[in-house]
Amino acid sequence: MLRLLGPGARLCDGRSRREILRIGGLGFLGAGLSLADLTGAEVPAVSPVLADATFGRAKSCIVLFLMGGPPQHSTWDPKPDAPAEVRGDLGPISTKVPGLSICELMPKTAMVADKICLLRAVSTRDNAHSSSGYYMLTGRPHQPMNFENANPGPPNDAPSLGAMLGRLRADRGDLPPTITLPNRIVNTDGSIWPGQDAGFLGRSQDPWLLNAQLTPAGYRIQEIDLPADLDLDRLGRRKDLIDRLQHGFDALEHDPVAKRMDERSTRAFELLHSPRARQAFRLDHEPESIREQYGKTPFGQGVLFARRLVERGVRLVQVNWYRGPDEPPANPCWDSHSNETSRLRDVLLPPMDRAYGALLADLESRGMLDETLVVCMAEFGRSPRLDTNGGRGHWGSAFSVAMAGGGVRGGQVFGSSDRLGAYPREGKVGPEDLAATIFHCLGHTPETEFRDTLGRPFPLSRGEVIRAIL
Fold it and tell me: Which PANTHER family match (predicted)?
């Protein structure tokens, strides 16, 4: 049965969790000390009273990022009783959860709805792709908001969720702790969105980017793809020679650019020489039936790739639906400013529905869903009314995010939008709350602190864990 949840209750004495933690820390503040000062490390402000069975349930996280902004009306939050210009041409279908409907073009997702928790009142209040995207990817609002074609750099140099997790959790063996694929998200002018790297944590903490191109055998990955005439033995001899030469370049020893290049080339070499890592990248080792279930599309095979990576110990994998060279300039990715219905029906929803439904079913069948948090999100949603071109504008006031597994209870909806899908009606949450919940499921309290470039405390999130969905 569908569970409709409102905002989480406060503690019995009327105080919020964050207030309790703040009060509990007054003794340290009075002495001019913090937990991080006392230990010299990133330490969470832990309250045993507030611990629950969902804390740290997830070993890994898969983020599916649908760049452009899917319309909430024609995906997760249909409005069948709204006027035609609001509800659009696509109707709702029932799901495995009685009382829960989603878009008719999502039949495979409907079959796994009992695994999904829908947040229907997410809000960034930001209608620009890159600045709202920065907010979603870091849990920090961009300065200023509503800033299109924003670029990385101070003051907008907060680390991404993946970078923070990678800093907190060391590598589990041969693979990087966090990976982004198959490409970064870019602005209209080709520049890279902010919020996708480690920001002030330093480039060494960047999530590992796997530039990948879909081929019949799987993904061709530029960083570890060897030329036909270069085997691993020859590559090893070349690296030994480069290492010896590098020691002679004293001027490069303190060059940060050279250091970053050396770190990344070393990591690529380690991946090439690790049988376990190379095995993770071989999609052609998957049964053909599994590859077909996910769909032989870049997104579908990328989602399958993510499952293989978390299966082998990667902590967080972000799969981007990114702006490719074949995307229409006026309607790239999910940014449907015109012809929304045909774009959703013919291009967008079938591969997304197929891959997402397959992922949840596959994780469940392998016994991995309980320990793998899956988050399907975008930078924002779409405006309530269709315009004369049959499209919708950018809309950060209210949209939906789907979560599953890893400590999140499925078959429920938290929050709701108004009758037009325009503004939150109840249960409004922000990206900081989403970040706090993700880190909670991964075993880190939002109060865990880093230090920024000025030595100021920087918590993982300033939001509240959405406890009603756990």
Answer: BLL7424 PROTEIN (PTHR43737), DUF1501 DOMAIN-CONTAINING PROTEIN (PTHR43737:SF1)
